[in-house]
Every structure is written in structure tokens, then in C-alpha cells.
Design a protein that fits this description.
Helix content is about 40%, strand content about 20%. Strand 7 and strand 8 form a beta hairpin. It contains 14 helices and 15 strands.
Length: about 400
Amino acid sequence: MGRACGARPRRATAPSAKLQAIYEAEIRGVRGADGVHHGAVSVPQTLVDLRRRAIHRTLFRPTTLPRALARLGFVQADPIRAPARAQDLTLRHRVTGYRAGDLERRYPRLAIEEDFFVNAGFITRELHALMHPRTPQRAWTKAQWKNAQRVLEVVRDRGVAHPREVDAALELGTTTNWFGGRSSASTQLLDGLHYRGLLRVARREGGIRLYAVREPTPPPEDPRAAYDALVDVVVAKYAPLPAPTLGKLLSYLRGGVPQWSHDRAAALTRAKARLVKHHVEGMDWLWPAGEVSRAREVGDVVRLLAPFDPLVWDRVRFELLFGWEYKFEAYTPAPKRKLGYYALPLLWRDQVIGWANAKVDGGALDVQLGYVSGNAPRDAAFRRALEEEVERLREFLGAA
């Protein structure tokens, strides 16, 4: 393991001088006579309190895969594997004995669906049912619907169909895709039927979706209640969240339930009315009603987080809680990267103090580290915790 090269990330503008002082003290580490890291727990209703609350809410005690999925409601997916896919990197902290690829291997036996929610990923079937039938904002032409029916017939005949089989059976040629390029017309129809809830992803082979027919379901009896239930799942996943993030999440949710786009403003108003709100360090923060806000100390644990982990996903919240700007640079030209292609935020106790770039090279795991302050903590406890986390990562990847 070594330190990553490159410039330091830009520090976020601190909401107050007090926050910056807390941040510096947290990096150095403050320990009491009992040996436990206490940080700034003596300051009530601070960003430190919110940070610890966020950590304890999302990094719950590891459990079984079905239970973790039920608790999360939704897991964001990403195809990049560096060193593993985002969904696997997210679940490894929350599922006992989890190994890279377990979600894909067990997917056909799990009560989940691959679909779009606030972003692409995996959602429980209970929540999936609330999102359908989905009415896309861009309607198909009669010709497109005619070809879509032909695609449905091919998939129904086969039970589970690979896009190659559908393309070979129908020979619909190519068409312009969303990115301005050319792709198979049948593949686009498969994607469209899946989005409309008429097909489901049965499983994947080599990363390719295989489809099966999904029988249409009736709309929810109370669409407003269904919409509110989905909003509550989003809030529970990312809370405590800055008030502006709630509006952003509801904007993203329009991709999951475009048929209710007209109700977005009203849904936002209803959500604000039922959520708990506290004003902390110049910002309104929201979380589900009925939860008691607690700021418990975090043990001597290192975790390497996925770029889309619930603790990391909201970059605004990340800057407010951890005091520096994290950027996902996979799509940034290499000469302009400061953290690395797929930098994993490094959580130590209750602070993200740096990042890691990890890869399996020749069967062995290589981890390169970088630190916000420029140096690793000198605490022996940190070194032990880092070694333990690297070993967990190695087992998760099956590396030598």
C-alpha cells in the first residue's frame, strides 16, 4: 500500500470557523480516558452529531443479503468494476460474508427487481410494484408499438430471452440511440418494454440483461400514498439530508415514476410537512419522523466506501459533513484527476480522511492511498484498522 500521487482535493468552504476547527480536531483524533474516540460530542446539535447519525443509520450491523436489501429498499448499480461494481462495494459493508458478484449470482432467487428508481439499480419488489404501470413522457408511435408487440411475443415464446435471440428472430435493424449513435432496434425496444414494466430482468449473463415477460399490474389504489411511500424510502436511505437535497431527489424520482411528475411540487410539500427538521450550522436538515437523533461515538474502524454508497452519494452533504470535496473522476481525463479513476472514500472512525484506489493485479490486491491532510494518522489503531479493512477487501474480491 502507498500514497496516491496528485494534487489534494479542494476543501469545501466551511459554513463556519467552528466547523473547520472541529474538522481539524477530528482528523487528529480526540480520545478520552476510556480509550474511546469522542471528538466533539460535547457540542450539541452540530455537524459532528449529524455525521455520526448518518454513519450509524446507514452502516448498520451486517446481516443477511435479503434483510440488507429490505432495509435499504434500493441499491444503486454501476457497471464499472474497479475493483468491484458499486452495488457489491456497497453491500459488502452491510452483508455478512458478502463476496463480489453475490448479488448477480443470487438475483434470480431474491425478491428484488432491476429497474430505475432515483437512479439505476436494484429495488425490492414491494416498492417496484408501487412504481408501475409506468407511463413514459415520450410516447411510442404506432409502428414502435407494433414492433414492441413482436418483441414481447418472442420473449414470451422463449421464457427468458437474450437480446441476441430477439435481434436474430426479428431483424429490425438499427436505430439512433439516446447518445446519438446506432444500436439494435430490438435492444432499444427491450429496454423500453422493461421501463414500461412489461418486461423484467430475469438475470444477467456476462453483464448482459436477459428478459422475461412481466404481466401488467394495476395502478395503486391511492397514487398519492404510493408516491409518498417512495419518497419516504428515499429520505430514509439518505437521511439526515440537507433540505435542498430533498428537492433534488424528487427530481430524480421523476425518472422512476414519470406518471406522477405533475404531483412533484405537492409531494415535496407533503414530505416537508411530515419530516423532522433541524437547523444546524446554517442549514436545515431533514430525517424521518419518529427517529430519535443520537450522536454515538464511532469505534476504531476503517471502511473503504463505494463512490455511490449512501454515505457518499450526496456530494453537498458529503462536503458539509466531512469538510472536503469528493469527486468521482472515472469520466475525467487522466491528466486532470486529483483522486484517481475510481477513488474509494476512506472512512476512519467518523471522518472521511482520504481515499484509496484499489485494483487486482496478477491476482494480488494493490491499494494506493491518499489523505486530505497529506499524511496518514500516526495512531497505531489506525494502522491496525486499515490492515483489517484491506484484508476484508481482499477476501471480498477473492484476491491473493
